[in-house]
User: Fold this.
Amino acid sequence: MADQKPTVDPEVPFAKRIDPNKEDLTRDEFYFIRQVELAQWKKKSQQLRGRNIATGLAIGAIVMGIYGYTFYSVKQEKIMDELDEEAKVARMRGAKTSAN
Assistant:
């Protein structure tokens, strides 16, 4: 069934591109063209909206991941605290001079 090709009636004209500015079209034909264009635009906008939402969620997830990882890594960073404690202890043990 899938191998069968639809038969084309040679009497039926195939859709062709036209230039509305050059062709003499009636008001009804212009209206029909506008309706078809509007339907195509709505269909495309729905597809684009879905893609835009997916892209926005993906970018947001990446940003939140980086933000969360930054907080996590800074929270674990105790090197500066240890250095501050060592410096404090060294100041306390150091010899007292007139400059201190």
Helices lie at 27-76, 79-93. The longest helix spans residues 27-76. The mean pLDDT is 81. DSSP finds two helices and no strands in the chain.
